[in-house]
């Protein structure tokens, strides 16, 4: 089990995960990352999420272990 941090950022802003979450493995980290992105996208707001990216960092917050662009879960615009 490892503690990882899930930070979201764009050119104009950043959402820093100060608490972190414990995950079992890389698949669990990817699932949690996708859930965070989906939750933010589903929250009513005026934010354009297409340029946002979620980065998962290790316990020391020094190494990025996963990058998930929000656009990968948004689908194509209509």
Write the topology of this structure.
Blueprint: E1 2-9, E2 14-15, E3 21-23, H1 26-42, E4 53-57, E5 64-69, H2 71-74
Antiparallel strand pairs: 1-2, 1-3, 1-4, 4-5
For the structure shown, list the relevant keywords.
78 residues; alpha+beta; five-stranded antiparallel sheet
Describe the structure.
By secondary structure, this protein is an alpha+beta fold. Strands 1, 2, 3, 4 and 5 form a 5-stranded antiparallel beta sheet that branches. The protein has one domain (2-74). The chain has helices at 26-42, 71-74; strands at 2-9, 14-15, 21-23, 53-57, 64-69. The chain is globular, with a radius of gyration of 12 Å.
Share in β-strands: 25-35%
What is the typical, i.e. mean, pLDDT? 93
Unreliable stretches: none
| Rg result | 12 Å
Q: Globular, elongated, flat, extended or rod-shaped: what is the shape?
A: globular
Give the number of helices: 2
Percent helix range = 25-40%
**End-to-end C-alpha gap:** 41 Å
């Amino acid at each position: 089990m490892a503690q990882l941090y899930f930070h979201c950022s764009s050119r104009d802003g950043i959402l820093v995960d100060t608490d972190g979450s414990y995950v079992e493995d890389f698949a669990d980290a990817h699932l949690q990352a996708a859930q965070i992105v989906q939750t933010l996208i589903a929250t009513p707001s005026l934010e354009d999420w297409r340029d946002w990216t979620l980065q998962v960092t290790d316990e020391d917050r020094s190494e990025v272990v996963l990058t998930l662009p929000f656009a990968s879960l948004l689908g194509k615009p209509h």
